[in-house]
Amino acid sequence: MDTLNLLVNKVQPLSGTVSADGRLVSLSASLSDQLGYSPEELRNQPIERIYSAESIRTLQLLFANPPADQIIHSLELTLIRHNGGLLQVVACGLLEWRSVQPARLHLLKIPLGALAHRLREMHNANEVMSQMLQSAKVAYWCIEFSEAVNINTSQDEIVRQVFENDSHWRMCNRAMAGVYEMPADVDFNQ
Question: pTM for this structure?
Answer without folding.
Answer: 0.66
